[in-house]
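Lecture notes, part 5. Sequence design as translation. It can be helpful to think of inverse folding as translation between two languages: the language of shapes and the language of residues. The source text, in structure tokens, appears below.
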């Protein structure tokens, strides 16, 4: 399979997606959180692949999404501490 030129709207800019995953991850600990993230990432990778997104680009999108989620969680945590 060859790489395509299709690109998706950046996952890390989808606020509802980032917020939703962050909230779920915040409710989990340890292996439960890891398992949830791995399953979520795999589902997203499959969806992007089925949409024609090149594997390398799909992996970059999921990586950027994870960074956005972690940033979201850190910001929310800092806001809670500031109260």
């Amino acid at each position: 399979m060859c790489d395509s030129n299709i690109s998706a709207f950046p996952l890390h800019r989808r606020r509802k997606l980032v917020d939703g995953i962050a909230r779920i991850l915040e409710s989990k600990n340890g292996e439960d959180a890891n398992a949830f993230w791995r399953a979520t990432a795999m589902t997203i990778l499959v969806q992007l692949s089925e949409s024609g997104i090149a594997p390398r680009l799909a992996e970059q999108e999921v990586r950027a999404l994870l960074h956005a989620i972690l940033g979201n969680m850190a910001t929310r945590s800092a806001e809670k501490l500031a109260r």
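The translated text above is only one of many valid answers, since several sequences can fold into similar shapes. The longest helix spans residues 55-82.
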